[in-house]
Amino acid sequence: MSPSSITEVLIVGAGPTGLMLANQLARRGVGFMVIDRHAGPSVETRALGVQARTLEIYSHLGIAERGLELGKRATGANLWIEGRPAARIPLADMGRDLSPYPFLLILGQDDNERLLGEKLREHGIEVQWNTELIGLAQSPDEVRVTLRQADGSTREIRTRWVAGCDGAHSAVRTLNSIEFPGAPYEHVFFVADTTATGRMVPDELNVYLLNQGFHLFFPMRGRDHWRIVGILPPELRGRADLQFNAVATTVRTHVGGSLDFQECSWFSTYRIHHRRAERLRDRRCFLLGDAAHIHSPVGAQGMNTGLQDAYNLAWKLALVSSGRAPAALLDSYEAERLPVAQRLLQTTDRMFSLIVSDRLLSRIVRTRVLSRIAAFAMGFQRIQRLAFRTISQIGIQYRKSVLSETQTGIPEEAPHAGDRFPWLRVVVSPGGPVEDLFARLDDTRFNLIVVGQPPLSSEPAELSGLLRTHEISVDSANADELIRSHIPSPSFYLLRPDGHVGLVGTKLDGALVTRYLTERLGFGKASVG
Ligand SMILES: Cc1cc2nc3c(=O)[nH]c(=O)nc-3n(C[C@H](O)[C@H](O)[C@H](O)COP(=O)(O)OP(=O)(O)OC[C@H]3O[C@@H](n4cnc5c(N)ncnc54)[C@H](O)[C@@H]3O)c2cc1C
To answer: Is the CB of 165 under 6 A from ligand 1?
Structure first.
């Protein structure tokens, strides 16, 4: 790129968050560059859990099926106390009827990054490896960025927007003087990818609750392949040359039985922090993923949250870059995603403190009460569904967002503006088969779902080429599904490209849709970038 040319978006960091943003921008025809200071993709598994909401997004990207082939569905969690089996929590189909992917998928971060990277290459785009952002200067119209290359030389580029997907030590965050308050947890953790045999229930999560903490065994692809996570025994802390063998002895003692390790392909120790950026935006720079929030791995939320930060920002950047919407639309990124990060930190912190605390009460809860309560509670379908909604991230909503408008007449229990539109299986073409509505949605456009009334006679001019309409008739084929989802008739739901409801009302009216687009999203008020 010549120094005089300007790129629309610079994505800093090609971890899962940066790769997701790159894919979403590529699909929407936005020009961008994606750089990473490393020499190539990460080969560490790190995050392991892929949540249902992420799989729904993967399905639009065309990588969900491959992910399912490579990963393992978490069918159950087996709780062990001091080496003895205590309870089993069934996890298979936890979210039946709530998502096409009613389970947690165990698929390593390296596989996720590979799938996202391959998809990006299909758009003819390569990550520029060995390229580190080391400086930036913002002006009203652009950002001038200094990049360091593999040979140590530097170059300057101009870009309209910078997406800081550059992880916990984010340079984009630091260079914009955005605080990252929080603290490290006291304990040091270890993570090991092993081949092991023992009493673990194959292909399921095995959770060993101990007086002094826990060990988690995640089943990985291949035979007897387990990822183990746990607290490093205090006497092993601070040892520079620490190898898995030293930890294996402790794990064997805790787990008991005939646990035998044949191999360890990756071993690492780390301290976990809980921190959140004070702001997610500074003028033309945004923070996403670990650059914006880090927390304990409880509930396998970290990578998934970053992926969804990217999904939230991408469609907004696309509308602004194409001149359809003004830059003010981008304010909604922070307004919607900062509360998500805030809640995530609070909940993971509470759970994590209970799991790792050395206090007597916590130890009793952990080893005597937790497993019984968890197993008992998960026997109730309502609790199971609530847990699934929360952990799978399908329950994340932006009801308070300025982009959310629920008209009067929509019942309390019905999906509201800001909610992820529920998964429906309905007859869309009269006399046709029952179809998965999610598979029909086009996530590069807005989707208008019209229930029990005629569609708009013409597309609103503001949305020309950007709207797909789906009519759901209220007949015997669809009635049960609409009742189950609390969707009233007549009604209409205008979905944003990310599947969240923007506008919902009873009587569909073109003028109402146009007013929503103008007032809430600023359509027709754009000035160039
Ligand atoms: C040991 C370990 C275990 C974990 N286990 C789990 C788990 O079980 N579940 C879970 O959900 N999460 C887990 N996590 C967290 C999870 O890995 C992160 O949430 C996830 O990687 C965030 O993705 P990201 O793309 O935002 O950031 P990263 O994956 O950190 O990617 C950031 C990228 O930016 C690049 N970069 C940084 N600075 C620059 C710069 N100045 N210029 C150019 N490029 C730059 C880096 O090279 C990197 O590739 C774990 C993390 C660790 C370290």
So the answer is: yes
Binding site membership of 299 for ligand 1 (Cβ less than 6 Å) = no
Q: What is the mean pLDDT of residues 117-122?
A: 98
Q: Over range 490-517, report the average pLDDT.
A: 97
Spatial separation of the C-alpha atoms in residues 177 and 479, rounded to whole Å? 54
- Long-range pairs for 307-310 at CB < 8 Å and ≥24 separation? 307/16, 307/17, 307/20, 307/54, 307/57, 308/53, 308/54, 308/57, 308/340, 308/393, 308/396, 309/17, 309/337, 310/17, 310/18, 310/20, 310/21, 310/24, 310/163, 310/165
Instruction: Answer whether 325's CB lies under 8 Å from 522's CB.
Output: yes
Q: 218 Cβ partners below 8 Å, 6+ apart?
A: 48, 106, 205, 226, 227, 228, 229
C-alpha closest to that of 284 among 158, 390, 195, 452: 158
Pairing of strands 154-164, 6-12: parallel
State mean pLDDT over 496-508: 98
SS3 509: coil
Given a contact cutoff of 8 angstroms between Cβ atoms, the answer to whether 14 and 126 are in contact is no
Residue range 199-234, pLDDT digits in tens: 999 999 998 888 777 889 999 888 899 999 988 888
CB atoms within 10 A of CB 376: 12
Structure confidence at residue 529 (pLDDT)? 46
pTM score of the predicted model: 0.94
Give the integer Cα–Cα distance in Å for 383 and 127.
Answer: 43
- Nearest-atom number in ligand 1 for the CA of 172 is 41
DSSP secondary structure string, 261-304?
EEEEEEEEEEEEEEEE-S-SEETTEEE-GGGTEE---TTS-HHH
What six digits make up the tokens of 265? 């392909």
Supply the pLDDT for residue 189. 87
* CA–centroid distance, residue 303 to ligand 1 (Å): 8
Site to probe by mutation for ligand 1, drawn from 166, 286, 309, 347 as the one with most ligand atoms within 8 Å of Cβ, is 166
What is the C-alpha to C-alpha distance for residues 50 and 466, in angstroms, rounded to an integer? Answer: 30
The residue count of the chain comes to 529
Relative to the CA of 171, which ligand 1 atom is closest? 41
- How far, in Å, CA of 8 to CA of 23, rounded? 15
| Residues near 467 by beta carbon (within 8 Å), at least 6 away in sequence | 445, 446, 447, 448, 459, 460
Ligand 1 binding pocket includes 16 (Cβ within 6 Å)? yes
Q: Is 163 in the pocket of ligand 1 (CB under 6 A)?
A: no
Q: Is the CB of 67 under 6 A from ligand 1?
A: no
Rounded to the nearest whole angstrom, what is the distance from the C-alpha of residue 173 to the centroid of ligand 1? 15
Please list the residues that pair with 215 across neighbouring strands.
208, 230
Residues 6+ positions from 460 with CB-CB distance below 8 Å:
467, 510, 513, 514, 517
Per residue in 243-296, pLDDT tens? 999 999 888 988 877 899 999 999 999 888 899 999 999 999 999 999 999 988
Q: Are residues 495 and 445 in contact, defined by beta-carbon separation less than 8 angstroms?
A: no
